[in-house]
Amino acid sequence: MPEITYWVDGKFVPASQAVVPLNSRGYRLGDGVFDTERTFNGALFRLEAHLERLERSLRFARIPLGMSMEQLGRVTQDTLERNLPLLEQHGDFWVTQTVSRGGGRSAGESGPSFVSVIVEPLPFARYAPFYERGIPLVTPSARSTAMQGMDPKLKTSSRLNMVLADLEGKAIDPDSLSLLLDEQGNIAEVIYGNVFVVRGGVIRTPTSRAILEGVTRATTLELAAQLGLTVTEQELQPYDLATADEAFVTTTSYCLLPVGKLNGQAVGKAVPGPVTQRLTRAWSERVGLDFVAQMRTYARHGQAAAAVPRAAVRQPA
What span, in angstroms and rounded, lies between the C-alpha atoms of 53 and 42? Predict the structure, then answer.
């Protein structure tokens, strides 16, 4: 069976042959940053926005890229194109750029940065069932990245707190996403995603103070504005989610997913709610693909190729 190809430190290699130096500070200390986008119909969605966020992370972490962002963009596209013969088998892809500081006893003495671009199949089977019944959320004891320690807007590979939160949440409910609270007990984000609640037709979402500013979040805000929906960015507590008319979460892989429960209690009057449904349709029109049907089709058939309904409005850009 043909194998996925990665770009690792300047070379294209089969995924099974990709290696990381053991003295890499990214491997040893999590001293690195990354960004991830996905494809729709095999085309990268909002690559420029993701690379801009990656550049901000690099600048904040003081990690030299060793190439221009334009060059990294071309490498990303070239890596994807080498994997497009596998598109029908997998449906669509995640594509991730990771940059870690090179080996060295200290950050100031490190060698050249270690850069990679990897392509992975999207986890359709993980999320497909929840477009109908909603994803359950659990609030673990582990908190989101604290502002006093490291700004959550930095997309860093140092994510052990999220791993621990995920393990704790899944010990309670194996299907759940962990809902992370900040140091004040306000809602921050879910594991690798952003949170929205709806009450009285108004969409509310946490401010960018203590969250990763998701590209999918930004796209959802744009679509809400185009639909004439009212959106406010404000501090939210678990109470606001538990008593919402409806709620949803957003991230690169699943785009937009309704919330079904919070800590075992049903959320909302209907799942998915009417605002969630409108935004889901708008997302499909935006990317030129019925992404919910795609999730369900590939989750059902696994690697078997299947026809997926296309939306005819716009292709991803």
Answer: 22
